[in-house]
């Protein structure tokens, strides 16, 4: 079955549920060995999933943000690393279409490449600048030379590096204050990957360093000069909280099944009947309901809004990420409290979920930046309503 042959969200969610079961079976070995989930990514490519956010005019399904977060969440129920990895690719294709910020022929070319199985991700973070959301000037530089640009530098946290075909790299243009994004094909001379990813969380994302040594690309591969003076609303980044909500749901499912089956001889029946266990189950369900309500409603609001309205959604988008990610951490913690010391066994998936959801604190936007933004919005609203 192929995602592109299914015309309903429900049908595509059912297909993803089936794929996700396979991801879950492979997740432990990927985590323990610190390898990349090549088979999972192949499954997503072979079933047409990686083309779903391509605009209809270029042969894609042009799915909504609401559908994207639902599908990403379901991937994460099987394997969080796979979900976060492919989420960047899916979201970037969606974002480029919505923002219409690239030269159209080059975006069309990229979509055609994706239709043929290519994968893309941004490479923006550097050792000294940290997260690009903090505003640091990249040390990667771009120099005009001959028929194009020569780019040199190192990028960290290049998620899905083992299988990427294209990188979107930000670089400082020499002898200017400008920063630009460049499209760099993997096959370009001077491009290499240094395997540096040694995180204890989301070990399967393959977020290695991208090395660029005198990489030459054509002039037209300078795809945009981002507006650095103000923040832009990026609805596609909701794939991040969707990933962590999916992991939390997997933890909840495991804890409930465990509680139904675990029957120590100190009690009659299983622990699922104990009031303290049911209290934790209720708390998990409440947090999941709250997370779903916020994530889904904001995604639907994005889908139904025009560009000017979307720009006003930056605080709401940040609030979703902060709320859902922190709720996911709490849900996994509650699941581990139900299961007890067994949750710390290396064979138990809860210890992997615990490590993986913590990674969400370090994905953009950061909690402190979101809280500061919400404070500013609150103060402005108060002043306007006096």
UniProtKB/TrEMBL annotation:
Domain annotation Acyl-CoA dehydrogenase/oxidase N-terminal: ranges: 26-95
Protein origin, superkingdom: Bacteria
Polar residues: bias regions: 122-132
GO MF terms, alphabetically ordered: acyl-CoA dehydrogenase activity; flavin adenine dinucleotide binding
Pfam families to which the protein is assigned, alphabetical: Acyl-CoA_dh_1 (PF00441), Acyl-CoA_dh_M (PF02770), Acyl-CoA_dh_N (PF02771)
Keywords of the record: FAD, Flavoprotein, Oxidoreductase
Oxidoreductase in keyword set: yes
Domain Acyl-CoA oxidase/dehydrogenase middle: 123-215
Span of domain Acyl-CoA dehydrogenase/oxidase C-terminal: 242-359
Cofactor: FAD
Region (Disordered): 122-141
Family the UniProt entry places it in: Belongs to the acyl-CoA dehydrogenase family.
Record protein name field: Acyl-CoA dehydrogenase
Protein species of origin: Neobacillus cucumis
